[in-house]
Amino acid sequence: MDMANLTWLHGKPGATGVLKANPEDFVVVEDLGFTPDGEGEHLLVNIRKNGCNTQFVADYLAKFAGIHARSVSYAGLKDRHAVTEQWFCLHLPGKESPDLSQFALEGCEVLQAARHLRKLRIGTLKGNEFTLVLRQISDHQEVEQRLQAIAAGGVPNYFGSQRFGRGGNNLTMARRWASDEIRVKERSKRSFYLSASRSALFNLITSQRLANQQHQTVLEGDALQLAGRGSWFVAKAEELATLQQRLDAGELMITAPLPGDGEPGTAGEALAFEQACLVSQPELMALLKRERVEPARRALLLQPQQLQWNWWDDVTVELRFWLPAGSFATSVVREIMQLNSGDAEISE
What we know:
Blueprint: E1 16-19, E2 26-31, E3 42-50, H1 54-65, E4 72-74, E5 83-91, E6 108-116, E7 127-135, H2 140-153, E8 155-156, H3 169-178, H4 187-211, E9 223-226, E10 232-234, H5 240-248, E11 252-258, H6 268-278, H7 282-290, E12 296-299, E13 301-302, E14 305-313, E15 316-324, H8 329-336, E16 338-341
Parallel strand pairs: 1-16, 2-5
Antiparallel strand pairs: 1-7, 2-7, 3-5, 3-6, 4-5, 7-15, 8-13, 9-10, 9-11, 11-12, 14-15
Helix pairs in contact: 3-4, 3-7, 4-7
Function: Responsible for synthesis of pseudouridine from uracil-13 in transfer RNAs.
InterPro entries: PsdUridine_synth_cat_dom_sf, PsdUridine_synth_TruD, PsdUridine_synth_TruD_CS, PsdUridine_synth_TruD_insert, TruD_catalytic, TruD_insert_sf, TruD_pseudoU_synthase
Family: Belongs to the pseudouridine synthase TruD family.
């Protein structure tokens, strides 16, 4: 997916800058939202890593503990080219915990470990805390103004380019799969391709909603989410005035679909809008239905929490913010400046 074609909330940035001049310019700390139980057949291990991808560390942990690679899980993938703190889960039924003081992997440090009753699965985290350093900023004043605008109004909740694979390969392969050019048997590839498909469709609908200037206007039949919650309900015509007030007050958020095989959740005017956006993507829609992917909803806009920034000098700014699980720091940076170099692939 070409992120350059997606609508900006605050207009296309005029300023340029560099993200991730080095890994230390991009720090992610995983927030599970709970503390380990202290007992159970699973061992949660918190590791700070630099220059290692998530699966590589998981495989190494499995070998270290003498268990199968499938017995090590994690809540989400984290970027290799960054400093990240994330949790790994080792399934050790009836086994003693390994001596982690002997764990030695270049670029990795064990921060803590504790037993837990349940397996850590993909997505079972509350969010991530980010610390980013943006360098070589071409226009200090514009970036400052955009940061203030983001603090007030948020950013589009787009899936970042890393969701679509290097060079958009996951989406390319999904389209080939959809048209029966290839068969995809490997479970992980199927998951990546289907995820890329529904993410691209979400981005498409969200971008069009912003282009229509309707991202903060409740339509009849909209699926509205309570702020900070996953549940949603459908806006009825007779409630529009009240619901608009609640949206303006920040109590509610408009959602867009992650399409699949099932009802999208909207009705009336909102449903008609979403269907019109998807007319151009029959192959991906057919693939998601064929593979029985369960539909879901996701907020159109993303409000970075605890957003603060500190200018080190006129061309360098440090940002700190927290995002809920599944949201992308690239979506925040994209609204601040255009990247003129560097690797912008960021963890979820």
